[in-house]
């Protein structure tokens, strides 16, 4: 992650890698969405990425998403990728294409109420804490089926499209791979249950350091920030 070039150059490197990993796992590169993670990245750089063909961007702070949306609007699809506080749903409900961090019923309640009011359905991924790291958000693996059944029965404006996880921040590639594998296995298991209105086709996994492994294990959305825009400067904004 050290030899970064311009946004254009970085995207070209990443796309080549995605293409190559997709081929390895007998998939088309079109099955994998490169989600540009734009937290702390300014609007000019986001426009540059859009010019280079980026169609989807991810933010983890609702107010930041909202602020950038006021400028950029629907030139891209907006994804909420970080843990989401219920009192911040209001900032993004009318702007997001997908929420990647559905992980508790209180959040479902809030999304349902606000989505209903504006007559929208909200695409969501259930965040699963496969690695069980204390710092990670998400449901425990063994609680996911019950949670999804609950959403299917009671939250009609929430459309579950799949699962999301974060790999542990470790160097052990085998351990990282096993986390991705377990998320994929879980999605296959849930898919086989044929729960009404539940779709398991999307798997959001893989970031700058591990998206190659994630694609080999079946990822359909990779969330990449640093490898596109460089190291984040949290003091700038
Ligand atoms: C910041 C962030 C990313 C991107 O991480 P990079 O290592 O910069 O690619 C991906 N997913 C989530 C949930 C994030 O918060």
From TrEMBL:
Pfam families: Ala_racemase_N. Residues 31-232 form the Alanine racemase N-terminal domain. InterPro entries: Ala_racemase_N, PLP-binding_barrel, PyrdxlP_homeostasis. Belongs to the pyridoxal phosphate-binding protein YggS/PROSC family. The keyword Protein transport does not apply. It comes from Romboutsia weinsteinii. Pyridoxal 5'-phosphate (PLP)-binding protein, which is involved in PLP homeostasis. The keyword 4Fe-4S does not apply. The modification N6-(pyridoxal phosphate)lysine is found at residue 39. This is Pyridoxal phosphate homeostasis protein.
